[in-house]
Amino acid sequence: MEYTDNPESGKMVVSDVAIKYSASHDNTFSTVEQAQEGIPVSAFFDLLEVTGLSKNELSGLLDISFKTIQRYQKENKKLSALNSEQILKMITLYQKAEEVFGEVASFDRWLRKPALGLGGQLPLRFMQTPGGIDLIYDELMRIEHGLLA
Questions:
Q1: Is 103 inside a domain boundary?
Q2: Which domain does 97 fall in, by range?
């Protein structure tokens, strides 16, 4: 795979971001290893560009203020291991969601509605932890295979 902007819109798409940060759901070891080193704060802005999340929603999910994100960008700092893992997992989550829902906008709407397979809670709330992101990914797999709770 190559890293290219979407020629139709000139904007990056989820698969571009996944390639850029070598994010893969199939290689947990690589994800953890990469997260331990910290990923560039640019990943935050790239994820922001390809999702329907606001800057405050995304920074809130990471439990870090947007002002701090901006400071990191200015100082060319990397994200913490935990935030790096969250971002990498979110990238692979959005990649799977695009496959399942056909478009990111539909997934973003789904994130904001109670999901039966997640105990009737809003999926977006689960994105605060890597384990929660895994639960959403598992729910997407069930939806993809028609195994609704």
A1: yes
A2: 14-144
Q: DSSP state, 69?
A: H
pLDDT along the chain (149 residues), means of 10: 43 89 88 94 96 96 97 96 96 96 95 94 96 96 83
Its pTM stands at: 0.89
Half-sphere CA count of 49, side-chain side, radius 13 A: 17
Decide if 16 contacts 49 (C-beta within 8 A): no
Whole-number Å distance between alpha carbons of 133 and 75: 29
Q: Provide the number of structural domains found in the chain.
A: 1
Task: Decide if 96 is inside a domain.
Answer: yes
Residue 5 lies in a domain: no
Residue 53 near residue 46 (C-beta atoms within 8 A): no
For 10, left (φ over 0), alpha (ψ -120 to 50), or beta? left
Residue recorded with tokens 């701090």: 68
- The pair of three-digit structure tokens given for residue 57, joined into one six-digit string: 């929603």
- How far, CA to CA in Å, does 120 sit from each of 27, 116, 125, 133? 30, 5, 11, 16
Interaxial angle between packed helices 28-37 and 81-101, expressed in degrees from 0 to 180 and rounded to the nearest 10: 140
Q: Which residues pair with 121 in a beta bridge?
A: 115
| Bridge partners (DSSP) listed for residue 31 | none
